Amino acid sequence: MLRGVHHIAIIVSDYERSKAFYSEKLELRIVAETHRAERDSWKLDLELPDGTQLEMFTFPGAPERPSYPEAQGLRHIAFRVGDVAATKEWLEAKGIDVEDVRIDPVTRKRFAFFADPDGLPLEIYSDEKAFDGTIAP
């Protein structure tokens, strides 16, 4: 009965900073933006080209993430890309620090991690197999 992921919801500490990161740097399309005065919070709906949405919330006094990335709950958000190395360069050109590209020893897929302004782990993940024989530690 499940047909895919409709959206992923995150809570951010600084609305304007995170809005700029996701909509300007990552170039996700803004679908809707709502201020909820009764909660003193914002909700921003963003969309990826495949239709998957990212809901971004603010809540006063929300606690910080306990650790990176091994806290219980959401571990990371992975974005499917065609070329991890090219995407890494694109992100770095926008001032985003990206870890070295690695190869998953099980799937043989290329991937690399970076973080949003609150330290939420984000991943770029390729559908293409690696051919150089290197295995991630």
From TrEMBL:
Coiled coil: none
Keywords: Metal-binding
Top-rank taxon, per record: Bacteria
UniProt protein name: VOC family protein
Keyword Lipid biosynthesis in annotation: no
UniProt source species: Marivivens donghaensis
Tagged with keyword Protease: no
Domain VOC residues, every copy: 4-127
One Pfam family it belongs to: Glyoxalase
Signal peptide, first to last residue: none
Transmembrane segments: none
